[in-house]
Amino acid sequence: MESVSDLELRHLRCLVAIVDAGSFTDAAIELGISQAAASRTLRALEKILGMRLLHRTSRAVTPTTAGVQVLARARHVLAEADELVREAATGHTRLRIGHAWSAMGRHTPEFQRRWHDRYPGVELHLIRQNTPTGGLAEGLCDLAVVRTAIDPRRYDHAVVGHERRYVAMAADDPWARRRTIRLDEVRERTLVVDRRTGTTTVDLWPEAARPALEYTQDIDDWLAAIATGRCVGVTPYSTVTQYRRDGIAYRPLRDAAPVPVHLIWRRHDPHPATHAAVALLADLYREH
Question: Which of 6-10, 104-108, 122-126 has the lowest mean pLDDT?
Fold first, then answer.
Protein backbone atom coordinates (compact mmCIF):
# COMPACT_ATOMS: atom_id res chain seq x y z
CA MET A 1 0.00 0.00 0.00
CA GLU A 2 1.32 3.44 -0.93
CA SER A 3 1.80 6.03 1.80
CA VAL A 4 2.33 9.78 1.98
CA SER A 5 6.08 9.11 1.92
CA ASP A 6 5.59 7.95 -1.69
CA LEU A 7 4.35 11.38 -2.72
CA GLU A 8 6.55 13.00 -5.38
CA LEU A 9 6.56 16.38 -7.06
CA ARG A 10 5.59 14.72 -10.36
CA HIS A 11 2.27 13.73 -8.81
CA LEU A 12 1.53 17.32 -7.89
CA ARG A 13 2.70 18.68 -11.24
CA CYS A 14 0.39 16.27 -12.98
CA LEU A 15 -2.63 17.35 -10.92
CA VAL A 16 -1.95 21.04 -11.59
CA ALA A 17 -1.38 20.43 -15.32
CA ILE A 18 -4.65 18.50 -15.68
CA VAL A 19 -6.70 21.18 -13.96
CA ASP A 20 -5.00 24.05 -15.80
CA ALA A 21 -5.18 22.34 -19.21
CA GLY A 22 -8.74 21.10 -18.66
CA SER A 23 -8.09 17.60 -19.95
CA PHE A 24 -5.76 14.62 -19.54
CA THR A 25 -4.82 14.82 -23.22
CA ASP A 26 -3.63 18.44 -23.13
CA ALA A 27 -1.93 17.93 -19.76
CA ALA A 28 -0.01 14.95 -21.11
CA ILE A 29 1.22 17.02 -24.06
CA GLU A 30 2.35 19.78 -21.69
CA LEU A 31 4.15 17.30 -19.42
CA GLY A 32 5.71 15.39 -22.29
CA ILE A 33 4.14 12.05 -21.30
CA SER A 34 1.40 9.83 -22.65
CA GLN A 35 -2.25 10.29 -21.73
CA ALA A 36 -2.18 6.89 -20.05
CA ALA A 37 0.82 7.94 -17.94
CA ALA A 38 -1.00 11.10 -16.87
CA SER A 39 -4.00 9.02 -15.80
CA ARG A 40 -1.81 6.58 -13.86
CA THR A 41 -0.01 9.43 -12.10
CA LEU A 42 -3.27 11.07 -11.05
CA ARG A 43 -4.66 7.74 -9.80
CA ALA A 44 -1.47 7.16 -7.81
CA LEU A 45 -1.84 10.58 -6.17
CA GLU A 46 -5.46 9.87 -5.24
CA LYS A 47 -4.42 6.51 -3.79
CA ILE A 48 -1.62 8.10 -1.73
CA LEU A 49 -3.97 10.74 -0.31
CA GLY A 50 -6.91 8.39 0.04
CA MET A 51 -9.39 10.70 -1.68
CA ARG A 52 -10.82 11.51 -5.06
CA LEU A 53 -9.41 14.75 -6.44
CA LEU A 54 -11.12 15.21 -9.81
CA HIS A 55 -14.58 14.84 -11.32
CA ARG A 56 -14.17 13.35 -14.80
CA THR A 57 -16.78 13.63 -17.53
CA SER A 58 -16.58 13.25 -21.28
CA ARG A 59 -16.36 17.01 -21.64
CA ALA A 60 -14.59 18.38 -18.57
CA VAL A 61 -12.28 17.69 -15.65
CA THR A 62 -13.01 19.65 -12.47
CA PRO A 63 -11.64 19.41 -8.92
CA THR A 64 -13.66 17.86 -6.14
CA THR A 65 -14.08 19.77 -2.87
CA ALA A 66 -11.03 17.95 -1.50
CA GLY A 67 -9.27 18.47 -4.83
CA VAL A 68 -9.61 22.24 -4.57
CA GLN A 69 -7.78 22.18 -1.24
CA VAL A 70 -5.08 19.81 -2.45
CA LEU A 71 -4.63 21.87 -5.62
CA ALA A 72 -3.95 25.04 -3.61
CA ARG A 73 -1.37 23.22 -1.48
CA ALA A 74 0.18 21.63 -4.57
CA ARG A 75 0.69 25.02 -6.22
CA HIS A 76 2.39 26.31 -3.08
CA VAL A 77 4.68 23.28 -2.75
CA LEU A 78 5.67 23.43 -6.42
CA ALA A 79 6.41 27.15 -6.20
CA GLU A 80 8.63 26.52 -3.15
CA ALA A 81 10.43 23.69 -4.95
CA ASP A 82 11.05 25.86 -8.00
CA GLU A 83 12.38 28.63 -5.76
CA LEU A 84 14.72 26.15 -4.05
CA VAL A 85 16.15 25.11 -7.41
CA ARG A 86 16.51 28.73 -8.49
CA GLU A 87 18.26 29.63 -5.22
CA ALA A 88 20.71 26.76 -5.63
CA ALA A 89 21.43 27.69 -9.24
CA THR A 90 22.00 31.41 -8.55
CA GLY A 91 23.49 31.25 -5.06
CA HIS A 92 26.93 32.41 -6.13
CA THR A 93 25.62 35.13 -8.45
CA ARG A 94 23.91 36.95 -5.59
CA LEU A 95 25.32 38.24 -2.30
CA ARG A 96 22.92 38.99 0.55
CA ILE A 97 24.30 41.15 3.35
CA GLY A 98 22.14 41.40 6.46
CA HIS A 99 22.06 44.06 9.16
CA ALA A 100 19.95 44.83 12.21
CA TRP A 101 19.80 48.62 12.04
CA SER A 102 21.98 50.67 9.78
CA ALA A 103 23.83 48.56 7.20
CA MET A 104 27.24 50.15 6.49
CA GLY A 105 26.17 53.54 7.82
CA ARG A 106 27.55 56.46 5.81
CA HIS A 107 29.37 53.98 3.54
CA THR A 108 26.20 52.18 2.39
CA PRO A 109 25.60 54.05 -0.92
CA GLU A 110 29.28 54.00 -1.90
CA PHE A 111 29.58 50.30 -1.05
CA GLN A 112 26.63 49.57 -3.33
CA ARG A 113 28.03 51.67 -6.17
CA ARG A 114 31.53 50.20 -6.01
CA TRP A 115 30.22 46.66 -5.70
CA HIS A 116 28.09 47.09 -8.82
CA ASP A 117 31.07 48.49 -10.75
CA ARG A 118 33.60 45.89 -9.60
CA TYR A 119 31.44 42.76 -9.44
CA PRO A 120 28.61 43.14 -11.96
CA GLY A 121 28.13 39.37 -12.03
CA VAL A 122 27.24 39.19 -8.32
CA GLU A 123 23.98 40.93 -7.50
CA LEU A 124 24.04 42.67 -4.11
CA HIS A 125 21.05 42.67 -1.74
CA LEU A 126 20.96 44.42 1.64
CA ILE A 127 18.53 42.82 4.08
CA ARG A 128 17.40 44.40 7.34
CA GLN A 129 16.55 41.79 9.98
CA ASN A 130 16.04 42.75 13.62
CA THR A 131 18.09 39.94 15.16
CA PRO A 132 21.52 39.89 16.84
CA THR A 133 23.12 38.38 13.73
CA GLY A 134 21.25 40.52 11.20
CA GLY A 135 19.56 37.46 9.71
CA LEU A 136 22.63 35.21 9.41
CA ALA A 137 21.50 32.71 12.05
CA GLU A 138 18.10 32.58 10.38
CA GLY A 139 19.60 31.74 6.98
CA LEU A 140 18.37 34.98 5.41
CA CYS A 141 21.76 36.29 4.30
CA ASP A 142 25.29 35.21 3.38
CA LEU A 143 27.11 37.87 5.42
CA ALA A 144 25.99 40.30 8.10
CA VAL A 145 27.19 43.64 9.41
CA VAL A 146 27.09 43.58 13.22
CA ARG A 147 28.21 46.01 15.89
CA THR A 148 27.52 43.79 18.89
CA ALA A 149 29.35 40.85 20.49
CA ILE A 150 29.67 37.82 18.21
CA ASP A 151 30.01 34.09 18.83
CA PRO A 152 33.39 33.07 17.33
CA ARG A 153 32.50 29.40 17.79
CA ARG A 154 29.73 29.70 15.20
CA TYR A 155 30.91 32.48 12.91
CA ASP A 156 34.06 33.71 11.27
CA HIS A 157 34.42 37.46 11.29
CA ALA A 158 36.55 40.43 10.34
CA VAL A 159 36.68 43.87 11.91
CA VAL A 160 36.27 46.28 9.00
CA GLY A 161 36.22 49.56 10.93
CA HIS A 162 35.25 51.48 14.04
CA GLU A 163 32.55 54.09 14.65
CA ARG A 164 32.39 56.86 17.21
CA ARG A 165 29.52 56.80 19.70
CA TYR A 166 26.86 59.51 19.70
CA VAL A 167 24.13 60.53 22.12
CA ALA A 168 20.64 60.63 20.62
CA MET A 169 18.19 63.06 22.26
CA ALA A 170 15.03 64.99 21.62
CA ALA A 171 15.64 68.00 19.37
CA ASP A 172 14.46 70.36 22.12
CA ASP A 173 16.62 68.76 24.81
CA PRO A 174 19.02 71.27 26.47
CA TRP A 175 21.90 69.00 25.43
CA ALA A 176 21.04 69.66 21.78
CA ARG A 177 22.55 73.13 22.18
CA ARG A 178 25.93 71.60 23.05
CA ARG A 179 28.68 70.31 20.77
CA THR A 180 29.56 67.16 22.77
CA ILE A 181 28.33 65.16 25.77
CA ARG A 182 30.51 63.51 28.42
CA LEU A 183 30.06 59.86 29.23
CA ASP A 184 29.65 60.50 32.96
CA GLU A 185 26.79 62.92 32.25
CA VAL A 186 24.70 60.25 30.57
CA ARG A 187 24.44 58.26 33.79
CA GLU A 188 22.30 61.07 35.19
CA ARG A 189 19.66 60.45 32.52
CA THR A 190 17.38 57.52 31.68
CA LEU A 191 19.04 55.53 28.91
CA VAL A 192 16.89 53.70 26.36
CA VAL A 193 18.49 50.47 25.14
CA ASP A 194 17.50 48.10 22.35
CA ARG A 195 17.54 44.83 24.26
CA ARG A 196 17.76 42.67 21.14
CA THR A 197 20.27 44.32 18.80
CA GLY A 198 21.51 47.49 20.49
CA THR A 199 25.23 48.20 20.79
CA THR A 200 25.05 49.95 24.18
CA THR A 201 25.17 48.23 27.58
CA VAL A 202 25.61 49.53 31.10
CA ASP A 203 29.17 48.17 31.01
CA LEU A 204 30.19 51.55 29.60
CA TRP A 205 29.85 52.94 33.14
CA PRO A 206 31.29 51.86 36.49
CA GLU A 207 28.99 49.49 38.35
CA ALA A 208 28.24 52.03 41.06
CA ALA A 209 27.42 54.84 38.63
CA ARG A 210 25.15 53.47 35.93
CA PRO A 211 22.13 55.19 34.35
CA ALA A 212 18.54 54.07 34.77
CA LEU A 213 17.41 51.95 31.82
CA GLU A 214 14.36 51.70 29.59
CA TYR A 215 14.15 48.92 27.01
CA THR A 216 12.87 48.68 23.44
CA GLN A 217 13.32 46.02 20.77
CA ASP A 218 13.32 47.99 17.51
CA ILE A 219 15.00 51.07 16.06
CA ASP A 220 11.69 52.84 15.42
CA ASP A 221 10.52 52.28 19.02
CA TRP A 222 13.95 53.42 20.24
CA LEU A 223 13.70 56.68 18.31
CA ALA A 224 10.09 57.22 19.37
CA ALA A 225 11.05 56.88 23.05
CA ILE A 226 13.90 59.37 22.65
CA ALA A 227 11.67 61.87 20.84
CA THR A 228 9.45 62.13 23.94
CA GLY A 229 12.35 63.73 25.83
CA ARG A 230 12.11 61.38 28.80
CA CYS A 231 15.27 59.44 27.85
CA VAL A 232 18.38 59.51 25.67
CA GLY A 233 20.21 56.85 23.67
CA VAL A 234 23.83 56.02 22.87
CA THR A 235 24.54 54.68 19.41
CA PRO A 236 27.26 54.35 16.73
CA TYR A 237 27.71 56.98 14.05
CA SER A 238 26.02 54.71 11.50
CA THR A 239 22.67 55.38 13.20
CA VAL A 240 23.25 59.11 12.88
CA THR A 241 23.68 58.86 9.11
CA GLN A 242 20.91 56.32 8.47
CA TYR A 243 18.22 57.64 10.82
CA ARG A 244 17.99 61.38 10.53
CA ARG A 245 14.55 62.15 11.97
CA ASP A 246 12.57 65.25 12.81
CA GLY A 247 12.51 65.60 16.59
CA ILE A 248 15.84 63.78 17.09
CA ALA A 249 19.29 65.35 17.57
CA TYR A 250 22.66 63.60 17.80
CA ARG A 251 25.79 64.83 19.57
CA PRO A 252 29.22 63.13 19.86
CA LEU A 253 29.90 61.26 23.10
CA ARG A 254 33.26 61.97 24.70
CA ASP A 255 35.37 59.52 26.73
CA ALA A 256 33.79 56.38 25.24
CA ALA A 257 35.54 53.68 23.22
CA PRO A 258 34.41 53.45 19.57
CA VAL A 259 32.19 50.61 18.37
CA PRO A 260 33.89 47.90 16.26
CA VAL A 261 32.10 47.03 13.02
CA HIS A 262 32.26 43.35 12.05
CA LEU A 263 31.36 41.39 8.98
CA ILE A 264 30.41 37.85 10.03
CA TRP A 265 29.71 34.70 8.04
CA ARG A 266 29.08 31.01 8.59
CA ARG A 267 32.37 29.32 9.36
CA HIS A 268 31.82 26.19 7.30
CA ASP A 269 29.88 27.70 4.40
CA PRO A 270 31.36 31.05 3.29
CA HIS A 271 30.06 32.74 0.16
CA PRO A 272 32.78 32.95 -2.54
CA ALA A 273 32.50 36.76 -2.51
CA THR A 274 33.02 37.04 1.26
CA HIS A 275 36.58 38.31 1.19
CA ALA A 276 35.81 40.77 -1.60
CA ALA A 277 33.07 42.29 0.57
CA VAL A 278 35.38 42.45 3.59
CA ALA A 279 38.12 44.15 1.60
CA LEU A 280 35.78 46.70 0.02
CA LEU A 281 34.11 47.71 3.28
CA ALA A 282 37.43 47.88 5.13
CA ASP A 283 38.77 50.17 2.39
CA LEU A 284 35.79 52.51 2.79
CA TYR A 285 36.28 52.76 6.55
CA ARG A 286 40.01 53.43 6.08
CA GLU A 287 39.32 56.16 3.53
CA HIS A 288 37.19 58.03 6.08
Answer: 6-10
